[in-house]
Amino acid sequence: MNELSAGRHAGALNDAMSRAVSSPGVPVVTSVGNASDSIESLPLKAIHELPDFFYVKDRAGRFLFANATTARSLGYSDASELAGKSDFDLYDFETAQRYFEIEQAMMASGEPLIDMEEITPSLIGEGAACRLTSKIPLRNDRGEIIGLIGASRDITERKRQEELRRRQAELLEMIARNEPLETVLEALVLLVEAEIDGVSGSVLLLDSDGQRLRHGAAPHLPGAYTRIIDGIAIGPKVGSCGTAAWRAAPVVVEDALGDPLWEEFRSVVEAFGFRSCWSTPILTAQRNVLGTFALYSNTVRAPTTRETELVAIATHLAGIAIERRRGDERIHFMAHHDDLTGLPNRAFFKERMAKTLHQARAASRKVTVAYIDVNDFKGINDTLGHAAGDEVLKEVAARMANCVRASDMVVRLGGDEFVVVLVHQSSHDIGITRRLRDLQKAISKPVQFKGREIPISCSIGVAAFPNDGATADELLLNADRAMYGAKQQGLQTPLHHYSTHDAATELPLTDQEELRLAIVRDQLLLHYQPQVDVITRKVTGVEALVRWEHPQKGMRPPAEFIPLAEECGLIIPLGLWVLNEACRQAREWQAMGLPPVRIAVNVSARQFTDPDFARHVTETAERHKLDLHWLELELTESVLMQDAERALAMMDALRPLGVRFSIDDFGAGYSSLASLKTFPFDRLKMDRSLIEALPSDKTAVAIGLAVISLAQTLKLSVVAEGVETDAQLEFLSFARCEEAQGYRFSKPVPADRIPALLKA
Length: 760
Ligand code: C2E
Ligand code: CA
Ligand code: CA
Description:
The chain is an alpha+beta fold. It has four domains: 3-154, Beta-Lactamase (2-Layer Sandwich); 159-334, GAF domain (Beta-Lactamase), CATH 3.30.450.40; 346-505, Alpha-Beta Plaits, CATH 3.30.70; 514-759, EAL domain (TIM Barrel). It has 29 helices and 28 strands. α15 (386-403) packs antiparallel against α16 and α20 (571-591) packs parallel to α22 (613-623). The longest helix is centred in the middle third of the chain and has 32 residues, at 305-336. Residues 664-665, 685, 687, 721 line the site of one calcium ion.
């Protein structure tokens, strides 16, 4: 080192710069006062060529020297103009002050600062830059610090690349975690939008028919626009995306208003103010089109190279995500279907039956399960070989599939055993027996194999929901037993599971009779459970809950007789009784001068599909002179599932009269977002099962918060059911749930206990 000592050797300092500083050709800076002299005497050429920033400052922070790169970044074309200027002449005060303090501290301590990452505001119209900077004390020959040497490198691009790689890795992780495709695609669009100024991204997915593009993700495009393009056909002249999918090549439209590809959509882009739209097809490894990735912007322009590269990365990732999902669908299909016959298998049966039975229960419909076994299949296999056996199974499967309706299901359980599930279309589907006979007849015809005729017959055993079993397993077991009986007896007709000797199934008959009498003999009564404002603790409403005062068995809860009433149709008169009694009682409380509260009445699916229901409601309210604003009807999702159109019509008829609707038991199994959006509810009742686990269970907390914020988004008020503890209440108040109902406040109580609660 010569006299111009750069302090301790700074290993991390850019090599070129260290050389430039410490090379023997560099003269000693002896006099700080004569700044311009020393700058001019430096062999500057090489230093000015450096892409990095290099400068020398005096003790007061004034530039003694700066290379061309530094000068350019500060808005000067001639580096010598910087001499004598300080950061205060160049940057805003705050920035200059920051630099000044750092440099003064460094010079005071004599400790060089090596490789600091710093954000530098731009003085020439670009975004802020990220720099890796080193500052080193400059000493004179007596070792006194007379200034500093600064060297920095712009690492903005490197940082950007790192960030991009990190976000790419995150996306790949999302894909690996099997997050829903919509979520992954949305994250992908957001990634690109964050990197490119002024664009909105959109992913469209090619339909399975390969003809149309469907909405995939477009978090920042207007909803109205995405709805317009959802389902557009692909073709040689269909905007940027339709054309890109058609050509399987990128389409860059710089100005949609003038481009012939957009001719037919001109009014649409005009309305939304889009100008450029660059679309890139998302391709499989075999170059099959999976969809498109498009960027819209309101300015007329083409993508830069960097932007094109970024889009290429994004489409590649989108391709991985889409292919991954397709793979999953394929695996799911394979896991649920039988290779030989293509029929669904036992796993599928179980999954589907749970749903079928749930719907049947809600709609009081029967479901028939027929267990079918090919007679002497083993004999066919043994004497004619496996190929013949396979042919028989395939043929029999096809015959069964041809016999059933779309709502039914044919399943191969394994071997030569099949199940056919028939969903009854009405409560009195007398056609079922005939359909089973037809099924048996269709199966029992010879199968042709290599010029031979193989005679076929089968045994069928039948069990029906709900009488012969409540679950898929029970039904299967009983149908299997019946099939075994049929086989033993060599029957050529389906044999039904005989349950007449089963005492349990005899009971409902008498129960049904009893219940019928209970309604006319006035054995029913209503209890009421208050609903309370979480904040004020005032009673805002009561829910009417029916009870049956049984002459022998005492007070029976609704769970013991409502399902029966639904099954046998008694729910209609029972429901009318409840509605009438609730309205009468509500009016009576009002007449007593109590603060009026809402009265909530539970409505079953069967009641709601009664075409006269709306009329019953209005007549009942009129009869008791109760303003319908005080009536709230609680519906469960099963009510809506049964006949959505009619349910919607019924709600539309009653809402203008003031009747409010709440969705009951939300969060208990089958609640769906779709029904919340489709049906005009006023309130959401969070199911007890959700509240039960609060607040200790993290999942319950997450679901609870999600449900409440969902309700707020949809402008529904929320009532929590089954609130039993202070801790639950505290959580609800924290989560801004408006109302609560549960033992914490009161069990359902007889009518005469309510006035005291309303006054409290
Ligand atoms: P739901 O509509 O969900 O009614 C709430 C049930 O939760 C009531 O049971 C109530 O007693 C109970 N409950 C309330 N707070 C708490 C609590 O803090 N902890 C616990 N463990 N339970 C609480 P209930 O009265 O036995 O009614 C059961 C179901 O019967 C009702 O469920 C409803 O679906 C049905 N139901 C009751 N009355 C009628 C009616 O008039 N018509 C129809 N269609 N169904 C009714
Ligand atoms: Ca309810
Ligand atoms: Ca409920």
